[in-house]
Amino acid sequence: MLQSPQSAPLHRLLSQAADAVQGVREGKSLTELLGRVPADLRPGTQALAFTALRRLGGAEAARQQLAPKAPPPRVDALLLTALALLWPDPEPAYTDHTLVDQAVHAAKQRAPASAAFINAVLRRFLRERDAIVAAAERSPLGAFNHPAWWIEKLRQDWPTQWQAILAASNRPPPMTLRVHAQRSSATDYAERLAALGMGSRSLGAPTPQALVLDKPAPVAALPGFAEGLVSVQDAAAQLAAPLLIGTGLKPGARVLDACAAPGGKTAHLLELQPDLQLTALDADAQRLTRVQDTLNRLQQKATLKAADARQPATWWDGQPFDAILLDAPCSASGIVRRHPDVRWLRRPDDITALARIQAELLDALWPLLAPGGRLVYATCSVFRAEGQAQLDAFLQRQPDAKSHAMPGFTGHLLPVADNGSQQQPTLDGFFYALITKP
Asked: Matching InterPro entries, A to Z (predicted)?
């Protein structure tokens, strides 16, 4: 269900959300687009845009029935946004009448000549909704709200689970916290939340500091957030740091977080073992500011370097690392429920290009690992080309490398409910590999 924003007229939010949908269709990141939205309109715009992008395939299939000749992009984006919000929903945030009225209001300000067209199309959709939705969902685009190539790739990679993965990707994710291991336990922090009327549940091993909130909340409402007592991080991402540290690295161990931004895993490593000599590397200097902000909030220190991990000669001091975390650039196909624009921005060739970068990173960093050291390779992807296939190819190139089975979970983590039901999955989709050097 949408969070119905109360602070702004719906027609203004619809227009802003339509701008976001139009921008994504033109290849722009939703994060970038939302950054341009006035602060007072941003929460409501995000809520509408997320829902519209999760249902965009069905909305496009419906619009093709209602208006085979696509209207101008600015009009089409508003129409698609409204159709997505009018899609059958057991708990709609707005009444049909309100949505149509406000969409027409937005059209009058956005493209006045299109207002009558928008009104006519939306009212016809409501009159024939069941038939139009049924027809739309007979196509893969309308049924699964992902591009056809993405659907086919998942079907090939996961023949028995692809539909569950797609369904999970269209549901809003839970809000998961990571309690600072040096300052509190998940149990104690859950009690603090309960005293404020905020329900949560602990996930236990292998993520003992993880708490899933019953309902999402602003970070400002989380007790101790500003002081670094707690952070927001999906449970799947919380597996990286303990996997790298294992039963404990030697005091003062040299550790590299090779693609560190935005800094959640960097901070988690230091929460688990504060005495690490940790280097946080990222190719994007601007994104490193987010890492520093995170470290400041948590009162932690690391050496930050802006450089391409594939070119050690430009940044490495020649001293081997005891442990390396490579959270590599990837398709983000495992976190689509958090970033619903990704599915519409990616292209099939992107997977090949990203897999090549991942291989280059692995090959460049492997010589930097000390004998007896540990390397964790991670991607927030459910595509095998970025996970198991990448690992298998690396082990062929590096016969001295040894991959280890990981207790508690397999290499690929899939964002599906454990029992295959329609329940909200706890985890994002990730791939992890633990590799050691003799």
From this structure: MeTrfase_RsmB-F_NOP2_cat, MeTrfase_RsmB-F_NOP2_dom, NusB-like_sf, NusB_RsmB_TIM44, RCMT, rRNA_ssu_MeTfrase_B, RsmB-like_ferredoxin, RsmB/NOL1/NOP2-like_CS
